[in-house]
Amino acid sequence: MLKIMSPKLDGPVQVQMVVDMLSNSPSSGNCHGNKSTEGKLSLPPSPRRRIFVQTERGHVLGMELDRRDNASMVKKRLQLALDVPTDGSSLTFGDMILNNDLTAVRKDCPLLLTRNMMHRSSSTPCLSPTGKADQLRDKSGIVEILGQSNCFGRTSKVVKEIVRAIKSGVDPIPVNSGLGGVYYFRNCKGESVAIVKPTDEEPFAPNNPKGFSGKSLGQPGLKWSVRVGETGYREVAAYLLDYDHYANVPPTALVKVSHSVFNVNDCVNGNKLHNMGVVSKIASLQHFVRHDFDASDLGTTSFPVSAVHRIGILDVRIFNTDRHAGNLLVRKLDGVGKFGQVELIPIDHGLCLPEGLEDPYFEWMHWPQASIPFSEEELEYIRNLDPIRDCEMLRAELPMMREACLKMLVLSTTFLKEATKFGLCLAEIGEMMSREYSGHGEEPSELESVCLEARRTLREASLPIDNELRDQEYQFDMDNEDTSLCQEIQEDLPPKLPSLLQRNSVNGLNAVSKLQFLGKEDAEIHDERTCTDYSGHELDLNYFSNAVKLSKSLKRIDLVKSSGQKPKLACLAGTTCAQRRSGNELLPITTGFVNSADLSEEEWILFLSKFQELLGAAFANRKSSSIALKQRQRQGTSREF
Ligand SMILES: Nc1ncnc2c1ncn2[C@@H]1O[C@H](COP(=O)(O)OP(=O)(O)OP(=O)(O)O)[C@@H](O)[C@H]1O
Predict the structure, then answer these.
(1) Ligand 1 centre distance from Cα of residue 326 (Å)
(2) For 454-494, what is each residue's pLDDT tens digit?
(3) What is the DSSP letter of 468?
């Protein structure tokens, strides 16, 4: 039966549990270059599993689970250990709500005990560790890797070094830079060997040490499409997807780690609590890579073309929204004949694989290397990419990854493969994925426009889509208090953060997600003057008309056979989206084309095929504008002489 093993806990309004089987099941590990997932998905459920439970305050408790345990038993145990009511809470794992049966829960699956909306309130008491909890000690080690993949072999060695160092008194050191809690973990010689980022210390997370706290795990974070507490999985996903270490992502694993260095905030006013003793966290652990600079410190001309291409290929596949120059470490190469040569190391992949279409950020987009055509070897690598197999691998290795993120992986990998088939270079691909900023704000990217068209034609084809269901796509997970909290946070933030937020989101939803959410693909929206979003804010219809213009430009090149049928515009019909909230979820459902809540499997497949069909014309359009631009530039230059 269930046996609580650990905790020093204080307030499980949300609890994240990471399940770790005790039995010696066959290794699920398949690593870079070995993409077969055969065998991994059909493992029988283990009779005994050890689970780690993480509260929203960041503490972790371990417990043992056996075959007979179910969700309500887990909740009862949590209630006992944490001394809090668990009524009105749901156990979730990734996208799945576990009503009772836990057989779907495999090892290392993080479960989340989430308060249902009607039980969520700012007046929810904030609890301190109880006597009961203190009696229960965690028997797990100082650092434990969650997952049995072969990919983590090298990381196991680093973990052993770290544990030895901690036992001999060499403590981790907090990193000052960045917005989240980051720690250098060291070996016995005092050298940094790993970077550890606790999931509850991310920006906005409850224990963020840099003053950016205030949200619970699972709520929208710095970007609306990446939930608080979920960047660590993405760091690991980027490493796992970097087959053959092609782009040089440092080995990364998810760990449960215990130390007194970690930050814990007071849940009432958010101030740091001192002398908390050893606390346990779920964190990403990445190998520390010695380097000389980051890409913002140096001119980019010395960067090898192939390194830029490889990182670019990864960024496009994973739809990276945060590839700024600081996230590319640069190491000078030693040795004869290597003078002036450097190696690039991509880090910080916590904001990749968003849950919906976002504005990516690719620092390399305007570097000259990105305009050089791909080599035959690079094209071969891209041809061999298989997004469906990638998804299977991620489902096996990181079962907590949400389906919406996997769909983004499929969409962007498909885009990359088709674009390179058409002969586009990296810069052109990056440009097609990026939004433009005009006097009217941001405009949808060419990729988004193609998605809008695919989606529209899908609707017009009178697919067996239940219109009632379609209406529900406008439902929201974010409740009023979350929205106001978001606004409060924005008001209180130091100057650096609001500008980041403004770029990334407008009142919690960015403009394109608004577009997706309203489903406004039709030109008729010009007739309407105003519409409010879920938080009652007026939407910028100029934005939508820009989308329409782009959409029309695609029509001009005969992409779309419009039937003239009007899409349903629920918000324009007089209902504010604020009235359409669901009580269960936490992220706005971006009704877009790539959200699992939006399209059924059948629709998704049809959408993808339509998407691929439309891409050819979009690429041709892009090629001809690139050629026209070059001609104009040449004429401009010749006139100067
Ligand atoms: N694998 C690594 N090897 C060496 N140093 C690293 C590594 N990963 C991160 N760092 C260092 O730690 C710093 C903070 O890391 P990182 O940028 O990943 O944290 P963050 O809180 O997510 O930052 P940001 O707020 O800029 O997104 C980096 O600027 C870099 O100097």
Answers:
(1) 8
(2) 988 888 875 554 454 444 443 323 333 344 333 433 444 33
(3) H
Cα 423 to Cα 375, 383, 388, 619, distances in angstroms: 11, 13, 23, 9
Measured between alpha carbons, how far is 275 from 613 in angstroms, rounded to an integer? 60
Burial zone of 29 (CB within 10 Å; 0-12 exposed, 13-18 middle, 19+ buried): middle
Q: CA angle, corner 317, sides to 312 and 318, nearest 5? A: 100
Tell me what pLDDT residue 77 has.
76
Q: Do 451 and 594 touch, CB atoms closer than 8 A?
A: yes
Protein residue with its CA nearest to atom 27 in ligand 1: 178
Size (the chain), residues: 641
Q: What residue ranges in 279-405 does DSSP mark as E strands?
A: 279-287, 293-294, 328-332, 342-346
Please list every protein residue whose CB sits less than 6 Å from any atom of ligand 1: 175, 177-180, 182, 195, 250, 286, 288-289, 326-327, 329, 347-348, 350
Two tokens, residue 188:
């016995």
Domain boundaries, the chain: 3-288, 303-336+348-434, 444-613
Amino acid at 117: M
Instruction: List, for residues 267-298, the tens digit of each pLDDT value.
Output: 777 788 887 788 889 999 999 999 999 999 87
Q: Is 279:265 a contact under the CB 8 Å cutoff?
A: no
CA-proximal residue: ligand 1, atom 31 (nearest): 177
Whole-structure pTM value: 0.74
Of all residues in the chain, what percent carry a pLDDT higher than 70?
62
pLDDT-derived band at 102 (thresholds 50, 70, 90) equals confident
Name the strand (E) or helix (H) holding 53.
strand 48-55
In whole angstroms, what is the distance from residue 48 CA to residue 25 CA? 11
Angle at 503 between CA 434 and CA 486, to 5 degrees: 135
Strand ranges for 288-332 from DSSP E: 293-294, 328-332
Taking the C-alpha atoms of residue 350 and residue 322, their distance in angstroms, rounded to an integer, is: 8
Amino acid at 611: F
d(CA 250, CA 238): 10
Answer for the pair 405, 353: CB distance below 8 angstroms, yes or no. yes
Between helix 426-433 and helix 403-421 the angle, nearest 10°, is 140
Question: Bigger pLDDT: 21 or 96?
Answer: 96
Q: Is the pLDDT of residue 266 over 70?
A: yes
Tell me, in angstroms, the distance from the centre of ligand 1 to residue 327's CA.
7
